[in-house]
Amino acid sequence: MTMTQGLARLAAGWRGAFASFAVGAAALASAVLFATSAGAQVFETQIFDPIKRQWVNYDPKQAMKYYQAHGQTPEDFRRQVVDFRTAEKPGTVIIDGNRHFLYLVLPGFKAMRYGIGIGREGFGWAGIVEVGRKAEWPTWTPPAEMVERDPNAAKWKDGMPGGPDNPLGARAMYLYENGHDTIFRIHGTSQPWSIGLNISSGCIRMVNDEITDLYDQVEIGAKVIVLLQGAALYKGV
């Protein structure tokens, strides 16, 4: 089975509307100059401990404790400008799910880097899409698959109004492919402690202040590149 066929099967497994969507290695290579590849595996989150001066594991229990103690995410996952070499033009969004970072490409080989939460095991995906539309304090309507498996989602099958308790948070950018909604979004969250974890059903989540910042800078039609797990950027890029 080729990588393209494998990606198509992954997409088909949880939503038929996006079943034909797949990205080859050449497309990913054109997106980021410092990419690498690896076999399929589950990637756990790590953060850098400045006291121990080493990378340490970061799980949901630790994440909640950290947020309760500090009222914010670890420094690695806070908004910051970083060096970033890419062939993509400014305004492009590149998502490195392995490291839980979203990059907004800036001029001069720079990027604004944000921390993100991504899909848990079985809900990861990769591809090249675009921002099809944007919404402030969006209504959340869970997809049929989620309604079937999650009783809490079922009560909102007709839509949950926007607000601080809404899972989409303060802003949402809807990802489209060939003019069709993929059902994936980049959005805020009512669970800010979850940034840096594999925890969603495939959407990319950010803390509300940071999705608001990104939302104001990204135009409708902007290119969004989601790297295949195992093709993350090197640490330090």
How many domains? The number is 1
What is the count of helical runs? 6
Determine the N-to-C terminus distance. Answer: 32 Å
Corresponding CATH superfamily: L,D-transpeptidase catalytic domain-like
CATH architecture: Beta Barrel
Overall shape: it is: globular
Q: What is the N-to-C order of secondary-structure elements (H for helix, E for strand)?
A: HHEEHEEEEEEHHEEEEHE
| DSSP summary, beta strand count | 13
Oligomer: single chain
How confident overall, as mean pLDDT?
79
| CATH class categorisation | Mainly Beta
Would you write up a description of this structure?
The protein has 237 residues and is of the alpha+beta class. It has one domain (3-35, 46-226): Beta Barrel (L,D-transpeptidase catalytic domain-like). The protein has helices at 3-14, 25-31, 60-70, 144-149, 151-154, 208-217; strands at 46-49, 54-57, 80-83, 93-96, 101-106, 110-115, 118-119, 127-136, 171-177, 180-187, 198-200, 204-205, 223-226. The strands form three sheets. It has a nine-stranded mixed sheet, with helices on both faces. A two-stranded antiparallel sheet has the order 1-2. Strands 7-11 form a two-stranded parallel sheet. A hairpin with a 3-residue loop joins strand 5 (101-106) and strand 6. The longest helix is centred in the N-terminal third of the chain and has 12 residues, at 3-14. 41% of the residues are buried.
